[in-house]
Amino acid sequence: MSPIPGLDRVGLLGGGVIGGGWAARFLLNGVDVQMFDPDPEAPRKVGEVLANARRATNKLVMPALPTEGTLTFVDSPEAAATGVQFVQESAPERMDLKQSLLRRASTAAGAEVVFGSSTSGLLPSEMQQGMTHPERLVVGHPFNPVYLMPLVEICGGQLTSDAAKARAAEVYAALGMHPLPLSKEIDGFVADRLMEALWREALWLVNDGIATAEEIDDAIRFGPGLRWSFMGTLLIYRIAGGEAGMRHFMAQFGPALQWPWSKLTDVPELTDELLDTLVAQSDAQADGATIRELEVLRDDCLIAVMQGLRTTGYGAGEVLDRYERQLFEWAGQAADAPDPTQPLRLHEVKVPTEWVDYNGHMNDSRFFQLTSEAGDRFLHSLGVDADYLQTASYYTVESHTSFVGQAKAGDQLYVTVQLLSHDEKRLHFFCSVHRADDDSVAATAEHMMLHVDTASGKASHAAAHILASLGELATHHDALPRPPHAGRHIGQPRS
């Protein structure tokens, strides 16, 4: 069952690059998907996108993802929209095609089901024509790859209700995205209009022989693109104005807008010669890499940028931090209550290939990651939930890891947690990583944590309900044998 309230199953119309990305976004958040796409190759194509998305999303976030939803291909738009709580349309950019799909699907969906369209520029007021309950259609315009890029522009048509826009924003935010509501309907919306301006100028630079495709991309990725990833455009210009801000910047550089630098109001003719030049330069830039290889490189770079921004809590990093906290909350809600008379079995994972090092074994750091994730689930079981984390948390102050066995790609592992001791400020527990096939121990980790007031950054007493949960668990775990590796020094047994 999906952890997102009121969203267990969605219908998707179209399984191309964008539709496949939406499928991955929903499935990896535990939502079942019914997809209609007449292309007989759709299952293969979507499967490849989903494989990329699994790899990327597990690499992006630290908390475990929910149990993956199921993907079912159906033979009509009506079937895709039957029995679902949300529909996302991602067909090619043809008004007649989108209107037909939306008309057919809207006859089968319940009146309360909101429809989102992935269109990158068509007006929702026109797409609404002929729909059953057209007030529920909104544009939910994502960016490729949908399973990683957080932005989704929300735009309503003339008949769209505020409730539909609010529900769409709620759904997208629950998927770890950043909904951007637009107050006015306009061709191309906002982000694509900005990208189109840059694209037009790039075409002119290639057409006039001023710069190659690689030089244009280098000008962005080594320059303003780095700033754009966290501050956008206008805030950067405000900073460039110094203490006087935007007004000073415009006074200094505004007149340059009248200079004949740009050809943004015109587009070069897309002659065969220009297309041949673009293709040749693009091929040279790719340097033999396949599309799938380039997608993996793109995903890894996006992950690095977003994880870097997460440390500052800004831009896309803020969205990622919020999504990880949500995953942490979901994991706690989904877990069955373990037997308190035994070490708590709190976390399970199948070792992915990217966790394996040059020796063919799971990397040491991944064992620590597993025990850290099990520790997060342990804290949640005690009552350290998303609300609690707004003001306080437990910080790790000391850890010791012992490697007892090995794990390889595909091995199923589970982690148990045993409470060793606690007081008002400290928490001492022991984790064991087991192989599921024979229950043998592959590694252990001992953690000492300190309760901290996050506003002051100083140690503080844990809340009464946390201490009560710890006290109750201690009545059981104090009777358990002390783990053999607990309290060990490097290479030395516990004295």
Q: Which secondary structure elements does this structure contain, and how are they paired or packed?
A:
Elements: E1 9-13, H1 17-27, E2 32-36, H2 42-60, E3 71-74, H3 77-81, E4 86-89, H4 95-108, E5 114-117, H5 124-127, E6 137-141, E7 151-156, H6 162-174, E8 178-181, H7 191-207, H8 213-221, H9 224-231, H10 234-240, H11 245-253, H12 272-286, H13 291-310, H14 316-334, E9 344-350, H15 364-382, E10 392-403, E11 412-422, E12 426-435, E13 441-453, E14 458-459, H16 464-477
Keywords:
495 residues, 3 domains, N-(1-d-carboxylethyl)-l-norvaline Dehydrogenase, domain 2, single chain, globular, Rossmann fold, six-stranded antiparallel sheet, 16 helices, alpha/beta, Thiol Ester Dehydrase, Chain A, eight-stranded mixed sheet
Task: Write a compact overview of the structure shown.
The chain is of the alpha/beta class and 495 residues long. It has helices spanning 17-27, 42-60, 77-81, 95-108, 124-127, 162-174, 191-207, 213-221, 224-231, 234-240, 245-253, 272-286, 291-310, 316-334, 364-382, 464-477; strands spanning 9-13, 32-36, 71-74, 86-89, 114-117, 137-141, 151-156, 178-181, 344-350, 392-403, 412-422, 426-435, 441-453, 458-459.
